[in-house]
Amino acid sequence: MSSKYVERVLAGVREKNPGEPEYIQAVTEVLETLDPVLKANPQYEKNAILERMVEPERVIIFRVPWVDDKGTVRVNRGYRVQYNSAIGPYKGGLRFDPTVNLSVLKFLGFEQVFKNSLTTLPMGGGKGGSDFNPKVSPHTPGKRCSDNEVMRFCQSFMTELYRHIGPDTDVPAGDMNVGGREIGYLFGQYKRIRDEFTGVLTGKGLSYGGSLIRPEATGYGCVYFAENMLAVKGENFEGKTCAVSGSGNVASFAAQKLMQLGATVVTLSDRSGTLYMPKGLGEKTLKDIMTLKNVKRGELSDLKVKDAKFFPKKNPWQIVSSVDCAFPCSRQNELDGKDAEYLLGHGCKLVAEGANMPSTPEAVATFLKAGILYAPGKASNAGGVATSGLEMSQNSGRLSWSAEEVDAKLKGIMKAIHDNAYAAAAKYGHKGNYVMGANIAGFVKVADAMVAQGVV
After folding, report:
1. Full-model pTM
2. Of residues 106, 127, 257, 378, which has the active-site annotation?
3. Residue 127 appears among annotated catalytic residues
4. Residues 26-60: tens digit of each pLDDT
5. Among 421, 441, 255, CA closest to 354
6. CATH of domain 216-370
7. Which fold has domain 56-196?
8. Superfamily assignment of 1-54+434-456 in CATH?
């Protein structure tokens, strides 16, 4: 049962934000776990911390006009949700996808506040993007937007966004469909307009201020977090069968790190379906998939792999015959209650989220009831933004760290996130519950900063 304080705030959120299911889901998931810390710290209610925390500090919505290769004027909608700056400048990715709307970005921004708090780095939370789809040409069915079309869109998007961001104000990064190409175009336009070279974006190319290990960071970090969970039980990944969803950077590098640690990865997926490899993903196949996704920008259905079967429009949680660990690394709400039951029935003992909120509330409840090792995305996928924070530090100091230095720092941060979440859960009587632990540990740091800074 949630406290009257939590119920009152949640009722207000539902009333003020009708038609925003993802946002309401994210807020509910966090607030319903905070009762122990709210009871122990009455100053949070006195200072209306929850009421202030569920409201973004600023929401920016703007039009993005651009011209396609046929000379037709197109118009998309752009967003930036600057959610909370209590512990540092707003920090969070940009997402270009037709599913982008205010509900999705508010949910992502809200989650980002706690995720960034957990990293131990001084970063607030934000998120942004557009309903622009670089995967679909607006004039040629079956084709993607050309590089020039993506460039023109990014330049138009940044022509408005630039006035709202800066290295000490708001530092966006990449997210879904915003990779090195898009970050390069965005950074170039910012530099052109502002006439300054600053670390205003992260995920940049190595030749102009990017950090080594940044593309790998979210996937590697997710596996490092899971490795720490297994260590609590005296186990490791050697010999374990792992199912991974997605096939972008997060999924691919999670799979790579799992293989390096001795696990067998049996699935990768995308919107076209799931590639099931009962004998395990090989290094050459993984390299081919990375080329397919990052260079050819194709679908897994285009790939022919020996000793593998492709299941159209299926996700991994519906087809694996035996699995020890699951890594949902695709998108929000991709894994529902039935999928969770299927995984448990086929031997799953660990779930670590590489995506943002990929498990529905029913799935989370199923995992927690079963008592398996379950890591929520705000903890286990924080490696990406943590390394973005390291990129900010390198940019500020005009430094460049080696891959080994960045990877060592990433490992240390993921261990600290794990240990803080584990300790917070134990402190408030929920030992082993990483959902409670991550939410409480992330919340307390931000809440204390908000109390200290007054009613702002």
Report:
1. 0.92
2. 127
3. yes
4. 999 999 999 999 999 999 999 999 999 999 999 99
5. 255
6. 3.40.50.720
7. Rossmann fold (3.40.50)
8. Glutamate Dehydrogenase, chain A, domain 3 (1.10.285.10)
